[in-house]
Specification:
Layout lengths: L2 H10 L30 H11 L14 H6 L2 H28 L2 H7 L4 H12 L29 H20 L5 H29 L7 H9 L1 H43 L1 H6 L6 H23 L7
Helix pairs in contact: 6-10, 7-9, 7-10, 8-9, 8-12, 10-12
């Protein structure tokens, strides 16, 4: 073709515009981050991790790893050590119990505290009104005395212990109303009461030994019987605080007479066991000494009741 024709054809044909080439971005593979995303998407990773930790039969919750304690207990050496330690602890407890029972009869003490509310009410009535009581025999079951809650004649330590504590508190109240209260004086009051109780028990045990009395009266029984006088002492001091000297002497006199009768009727079955068993008084010097001993123990209770309370009422 003629060159002029080629030029004219080229001039009449529209000219194509050249666009810049676009760079193809490869499709992100799983696990690769999207370049247009501002923050990393961690939901898929967590879901994959959550699903990986899920154990069959765990109801959708991750299974807890074994604890160090479980791993320790699974060790046979540790199991043997634990068994050996348990046996040593049991032997030590048994040894301690034997030594405690040798000096402090814990098993016997449980008997003296086996009381209930009904027994306490009946016993207090018996201490204030012993004249109305007829049967003073202690009940036995297979050569063993029944618990105090089943027999009002049985001695107990609950009432004497509570009465002693209450007596100390009432003494502090009486001293306080007279502006004479001090911790030293209250401690002296408590130590004096304990000292007199200890002297009473030792004197009675010595007398029983010298008179050669075969009786089932134990030391704990003596402490229980001698501790009942604190009930009357509390009544006398309280009436003295409310009504003065007249109320003190009236109530204390009644309580002294009641405790005297109570001790006579109770101890005669313990100390005069031979005469009580036969039903008639046994004549003889030994039996006369037993009677005198019973009367002396009963007569000492009103004297001590007055001695330990007269200075608390003015």
């Amino acid at each position: 073709m003629h060159p002029a024709g080629l030029a004219a054809a080229a001039a009449g044909t529209p000219r194509l515009r050249k666009w810049p080439s676009k760079r193809r971005i490869p499709v992100s593979q799983p696990g690769m981050a999207d370049p247009h995303q501002l923050f990393d998407d961690t939901s898929s990773a967590q879901s994959r991790g959550y699903g990986a930790q899920r154990a069959p039969g765990s109801l959708g919750y991750p299974s807890a790893s074994a604890s160090p304690q479980a791993a320790f207990l699974a060790d046979p050496v540790s199991n043997m050590a634990m068994a050996y330690g348990s046996s040593l602890a049991a032997q030590g407890k048994e040894l301690v119990d034997k030594n405690i029972d040798r000096f402090i009869p814990v098993t016997k003490l449980k008997y003296y505290f086996a009381v209930d509310t009904m027994y306490v009410g009946k016993k207090l009535g018996l201490l204030f009104f012993p004249y109305l009581h007829q049967d003073w025999e202690v009940q036995y079951q297979q050569d063993t005395p029944v618990a105090p809650r089943f027999d009002v004649n049985a001695p107990d330590l609950y009432i004497p212990a509570m009465a002693f504590i209450t007596y100390i508190l009432v003494a502090g109240l009486a001293l306080g109303t007279q502006d004479r209260f001090s911790p030293d004086l209250l401690g002296l009051q408590a130590s004096s009461a304990l000292a007199w109780l200890t002297l009473e028990v030792l004197a009675i045990l010595l007398s029983l030994y010298l008179v050669t009395v075969n009786t089932d009266l134990t030391t704990i029984d003596l402490v229980a019987f001698l501790g009942y006088k604190y009930v009357g002492m509390i009544g006398g001091v309280l009436m003295g605080l409310l009504f003065g000297k007249i109320g003190y002497y009236l109530v204390l006199g009644w309580c002294c007479a009641s405790i005297f009768v109570f001790m006579i009727r109770t101890l005669r079955l313990k100390i005069l066991a031979e005469a009580a068993a036969e039903g008639v008084p046994v004549r003889g010097a030994r039996n006369q000494l037993r009677m005198y001993l019973t009367m002396a123990v009963a007569a000492a209770q009103p004297l001590l009741m007055y001695w330990l309370t007269f200075h608390l009422v003015r």
